[in-house]
Design goal:
Blueprint (H helix, E strand, L loop, with lengths): L2 H47 L5 E5 L12 E3 L9 E5 L1 E5 L6 E9 L6 E6 L7 E2 L8 E5 L7 H7 L4 E8 L5 E7 L8 E4 L8 H9 L6 E2 L4 E2 L1 E2 L1
Antiparallel strand pairs: 1-4, 2-3, 3-8, 4-7, 5-6, 5-9, 9-10, 10-11, 11-14, 12-13
Amino acid sequence: MSWYASTTFWTGAAAVFTAVMAGFTGWSIVASQRQQRRALQQSDQHHQDGFRPVLVLAPSDDAIPLDRSKLLKLAPTSPGATERMYIIACMLTNIGVGPALNVHLMLRVRGIDGYGISRELTPVSAGLLGNRGEPDGSIWVTFQPHAGFNDVGVQLSTGDPWELFLEYEDVFGNRFHTIHSKNPQQPWTVCGKGPAPRGVDPAVVNAMLQAGGTSVLDDGPAGFGSGL
């Protein structure tokens, strides 16, 4: 091999080697940046988890009754009254590690979205029993019947299948929900991230439970929630 050919060969080899090393260096930088982003995201998530609230409705006697229908009752009303009141025989408790903000309590009857009531509650500090001041620890919720949930629907509501929902946020604005169902085949407490799932016909839920499911539908129609 001539000197010129040898020089050309080694010059080309050096150029290829330099290109390969440059590519490897670029890939290493990108991989390192991705790893740093993942580490920052995990650190941020861990930080936020340290302030996560978990709201639950705890029955006043600390035991889940076999007949859950006793946990939701209508208070007696006087003739001509425009307001009605539900009495929930539970204490609103935050068993999480951060305050629950923008708290909403919702009742959904027969799995129909909007068929029930929705009320905003005051924030609940971590570890606080938010019994709303009632001596027996129950929650009293006043409301007015409306076109979509009239007096007849109200009267029948405690006998129909019902679900009680709690929606709330942490200090970072992340939204969470807790579901309590009248159906004894489902866990009393099911928690999840995001808003409460859409309504599902109780007959469909029972069919899925009999087919092998263990809890109410959560996170959309395709998955099951996690009991707590």
